[in-house]
Amino acid sequence: MDLLNRIRTKVETSERLTDQDALDLFACEDLLGIGELAALANRLKNGDRVYFNVNRHINYTNICVNRCTFCAFSKEPGQEGGYTYALDEIYAKAAEAAAVGATEIHMVGGLHPELPFDFYLEMLSGIRQRHPQLHIKAFTAVEIDYFSSISALDDEQVILALREAGLGSMPGGGAEILGASVRQKICPEKITGERWLEIVEKVHRLGLKTNATMLFGHLEQDGDRVDHLRARGAGGVDALKTLAISRLYLDNFRHIKAYWVMLGLKVAQVSLCFGVNDLDGTVVEEKIGHDAGADSPQTLSMENLIGMIREAGCTPVERDTLYRQRRVC
Amino acid sequence: MLEQIKTKIASQQPLDRSEALFLMQETDLLSLGRLADGIRRRMHPEGRVTFVVDRNVNYTNVCTSKCRFCAFYTEADSASAYLLDSDEILAKVRELVDHGGTQLLLQGGLHPGLKIEWFEGLFSRIAAEFPQVQIHSLSPAEIIHTAELSGLSMPECLARLKAAGLASVPGGGAEILVDRVRKNISPNKIGWRQWISVMEEAARQGMRCTATMMFGSEETPEEIVEHLFRVRQSQERSGAYRAFIPWSFQPGNTDLGGQTASGVEYLRVLALSRILLDNIDNIQASWVTQGDKMAQISLFFGANDLGGTMLEENVVAAAGCSFRLSQSQIIELALGAGFTAARRTTAYEILEEY
Questions:
Q1: CATH code, residues A3-328
Q2: Domains in chain B, start-ordered, CATH in brackets?
């Protein structure tokens, strides 16, 4: 049977795709055909609803002991352009977010060589104390591993202490590509893919939800998947195809998010027709993608997000961090 | 309705306005893309994406037209007003040739002092020094303006420009070919009938043209459909057009302001253009206004050409939109989407395949 018909049957009967199915889809050049299947899979899960939230990013420091080759954000200690926000600056940014009706603070930063673990605990509890209504989504598995190493606590103790101080959930960053050979090239100092999974599973067992991400379009087509992925470039077609295949393969994920900061607004909107059902949030101030040359704006108003979603023929829904519906727009 | 439209497209029957409007407003994006992609495959089965190495030279920013969507023009007495002389323009053409370029797109404001002799002098110098360069220049509004200033009829003006070296006429200034919209956004510019009449006269004199559409300002969906029908009918009468290029209004620094069209809207208009204009060979994606990612996606929504490398571009950049792509990036973009790439002339002759 032809590939797309075989996948269509699997989607319609809720049968899981195999790894080979996913590789075959990457090798398939029928972008619109793959998009139609991803849109179908998404419709079966989410109807025409597309989620977004009102959030603010705070990148508290760009000083980082890791030197990931894909990153334009990190600075070495003492390097020009390095910064670390004082707690009061962080609280002021959180207060701005609260004032405009944000429901989430998204915080990630570099692995700072001098800040003690207590700094992070104080940062969380300080925000929670001032704005108990804000959900704090912060840190990645990479930071948890680092906190364990600087604090003489084990992973579970670190996670519990952060949860106690106000951590509500974790974004899925630092996953990059989980395969070892690619990871060795693009982020040799970063924790391994196995360790990333080990930590997020510990976080889940302790009652916190996380996202998972994938950073694609760098070297992974030169690595062990080269036979299947060809030289696809990091273009718009690659992005739509990867999002669509993510939707089809990850049948145990309800939500697939297009991160407009990295994709740009136009491609992010188009991806809503390729299986995506979430556009992230208003963001307000983002440094990591923009330091790497992203040409998207720093912030999107809620009206813009709603307009983009409607124009793609979908129903906008404001959610909180845990995907509880706040209102249908 | 969609089934009926699919049947008509399969048997290559022209769609009517209500069917076009249905595609524009009620058909989901991927179904629309499928129909456009099918026509692109039928017309360009070789799976090849073409581009031209070119340069836009804006010889003046002084313009009496003062369109409300434009961030480029200025008044004659403004401090930023400029007029390039022919030595400066020749130097720019030399740079183009040094980069392997073959197409020169000279375009300017409607300058109150430039008569036919200025253009004749310029074109004949360019043609003499750089015979390999195709002068794909001016637009219907500039041609009418020059004719009026010089006391010539429009056909006389075109004939003299052609004799001096003009090879083809780019389709700028079409905006929306409906006078209600033109009165709002470009009240001093020629009407839609005049625009079409210049192109059809150019075709009668043996020059081919392109046609454009600038959407996303103040037009209705019906007016977008009307624009496409008027271009289609003009092509039936004249065979003037080698390519059609839809692009979206860029609001930065303009009197009109507002927001630019979204990605979904661009792809819908692009796909509809491919579907309705099946009597025009080539549909260009506008990476200058949409960016490289969207331009690549466009290749699945009806586009088969990526336009020019644009060694220089000033007008869109003035509206705050400044995407840049090198020739190698354009080639990579086509290859990355599973196509081959080819450098072409203004006349769509293939020069080199990649």
A1: 3.20.20.70
A2: 16-353 (3.20.20.70)
Is A4 part of the contact surface with chain B (CB cutoff 8 Å)? Answer: no
Decide the pairing of beta strands B241-248 and B208-215: parallel
Closest to A275 measured CA to CA, from B236, B135, B29: B29
- Check: CB of residue A173 under 8 Å from CB of residue A108: yes
Domain ranges of chain A: 3-328
Residue A234's pLDDT is what?
62
CA distance B46 to B297: 18
Helix boundaries (H) for B130-191: 140-150, 154-164, 179-185
Q: Any chain B CB within 8 A of the CB of A31? A: yes
Inter-chain residue contact B30 with A36, CB threshold 8 Å = yes
Residue contact A32–B332, C-beta within 8 A: no
| A52-107 pLDDT, tens digit each | 999 999 999 999 999 888 888 999 998 999 999 999 999 999 999 999 999 999 99
Residues of chain A neighbouring B293 (CB-CB closer than 8 A): 235-236, 239, 263-264, 266-267
Torsion sign across C-alpha atoms A115, A120, A121, A125: positive
Does A36 contact B266 at a Cβ distance shorter than 8 Å? no
User: Pick from A176, A180, A163, A188: which is nearest to A65 by CA?
Assistant: A188
Task: Tell which A residues from 197 to 236 touch B, by Cβ distance under 8 Å.
Answer: 231-233, 235-236
Give the predicted TM-score (pTM) of the model.
0.92
Question: For B167, which DSSP code?
Answer: E
- CB–CB of A235 and B265 under 8 A? no
Q: Which residue of A has its CA nearest to B28?
A: A313
* A238 lies within 8 A of chain B by CB: yes
Q: Residue B54's beta-bridge partner residues?
A: B103
Chain B interface residues facing chain A, Cβ-Cβ under 8 Å? 28-30, 33-34, 37, 262-267, 290-297, 299-300, 332-333, 335-338
Confidence band of A222 (pLDDT split at 50, 70, 90): very low
Instruction: Say which residues have a Cβ less than 8 Å from residue A316's Cβ, sequence separation at least 6.
Output: A50, A52, A305, A306, A309, A310, A328, A329
Our separate counts of H helices and E strands in chain B read: 14, 11
